[in-house]
Amino acid sequence: MFQNRILIELLGWGKVLFFSLTIFIFISIFLFQPYIVNGSSMEPTFVGTEPNNNEKTGDYIIVSKSSYKLNRKPKSGDIVVIDSRIYKPRNFKDELLEHPFLSIFATESNGNYKWVKRVIGEEGDTIEIRDGKVFRNKLELEEAYLQEEMLGSYEEITVPDNHVFVLGDNRNHSGDSRAIGPVPNENVIGKVMVRYYPFNKVNVY
What we know:
It comes from Anaerobacillus isosaccharinicus. Helix content is 21%, strand content 28%. The chain is built from four helices and twelve strands; from the N terminus they run H-E-E-E-H-H-E-E-E-E-E-E-H-E-E-E.
């Protein structure tokens, strides 16, 4: 009798844990998901972890995965997380295996292909870099957020429909659209909404 009651209570707690985990996974897949910034490509806006420096802690951010649903598109100035594998259409499997609890089943490390970048151009915009200065639709951008003066140039292109042109804030140490080209909107995983750690750098974007 006593054992049966314990078993019933355990089953009850098991159901609660199962439904709680299910809700958490649903929220992380479709609504919000935490990320840790990797690398230095978004400095000084975000500090990232470094493979050879265990003492360097990356910024913790929350990404809204629902921001670009229902035909909403990324806008210039948005800070986003992208899937840099622009040759590979994203699907539900990608969303599922990127969840923190389920990523152990993924064949690629999350940090390898998910990049935090800033949207510089939207579809139809012309983007050109001359002597380290970025021009959108022939107008030079004022970019107070840059780590340092950018080196180099980039031939003018027109951003295709349903694509964005992204750059890191640390331009001289960033892999971005200068290397992979414009990014399809479907490869924009979500918009960075808040940095919640370190606590002295909490900020909303």
